[in-house]
């Protein structure tokens, strides 16, 4: 498939495995130059090596925590003008909302709502100036069908969805699109941990 994006540059968050790595691989197959991010350097370098060997794409890496100001600064220093931005971060832990204080909520919002917004804020005006930009936020199907023990994720990601719904209408006329992916049950480390938590919560043996 030729999507007409060969030669574009993409910044892909949480790309060492799972959905982020899948997005990075698909973009590389289309001839996109990548800067991929993740917290764990070993897994990140392994993913980059695999992508290079399978696609021949140019892949740079930045080992950082994208949910921190320092991590975002490092990512944007490596890729200050991405044509394509893939926002992705691990979801907050499951649990009972009665046990979550303000600090827990702020951490979830920082990771799954405010970090994507900060990255969009840092890149969208340059996309508008170039008359091209594609921003994709990987969220969760729980935005439309909330899961009881994933309240932190439900809240933070629904907030991001509402924000993006408004902004996307303002930038589309400049050939800049912002969309959310709402993946369901895809076998990743995150899904396996969530299923285990649900089983414990319901006293189900797995």
Describe what this molecule looks like in 3D.
- The protein is an alpha/beta fold.
- It has one domain: Rossmann fold (3-Layer(aba) Sandwich), CATH 3.40.50.
- Strands 3-2-1-4-5-6 form a 6-stranded parallel β-sheet, sandwiched between helices.
Q: What's the quick description here?
A:
By secondary structure, the chain is an alpha/beta fold.
Radius of gyration: 17 Å
Q: What sort of overall outline do the alpha carbons produce when their principal axes are compared?
A: globular
Number of separate helices: 6
Distance between the termini: 40 Å
Count of distinct structural domains = 1
Report the major sheet. 6 strands, parallel
Give the low-pLDDT segments.
Answer: none
Average pLDDT confidence is: 92
Instruction: Write the element-wise H/E pattern from the N-terminal end onward.
Output: EHEHEHEHEHEH
Relative strand content: 15-25%
CATH fold title: Rossmann fold
CATH architecture annotation: 3-Layer(aba) Sandwich
Please give the share of residues in helix.
40-55%
What structural class is derived from the secondary structure elements?
alpha/beta
């Amino acid at each position: 498939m030729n999507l007409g994006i060969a030669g574009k540059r993409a910044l892909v968050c949480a790309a060492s495995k799972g959905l982020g790595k899948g997005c990075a691989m698909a973009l590389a197959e289309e001839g996109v130059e990548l800067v991929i991010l993740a917290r764990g350097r070993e897994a990140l370098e392994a993913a980059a090596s695999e992508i290079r060997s399978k696609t021949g794409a140019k892949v740079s890496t930045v080992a950082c925590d994208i949910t921190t100001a320092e991590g975002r600064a490092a990512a944007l220093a490596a890729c200050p003008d991405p044509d394509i931005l893939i926002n992705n971060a691990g979801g907050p832990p499951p649990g009972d909302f009665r046990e979550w204080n303000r600090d827990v909520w702020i951490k979830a919002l920082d990771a799954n709502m405010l970090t994507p917004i900060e990255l969009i804020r840092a890149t969208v005006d340059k996309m508008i100036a170039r008359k091209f930009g594609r921003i994709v936020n990987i969220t969760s199907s729980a935005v439309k069908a909330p899961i009881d023990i994933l309240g932190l994720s439900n809240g933070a990601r629904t907030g991001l969805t509402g924000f993006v719904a408004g902004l996307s209408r303002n930038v589309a006329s400049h050939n800049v699109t912002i969309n959310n992916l709402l993946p369901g049950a895809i076998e990743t480390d995150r899904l396996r941990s969530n299923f285990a938590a649900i089983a414990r919560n319901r006293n189900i043996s797995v």
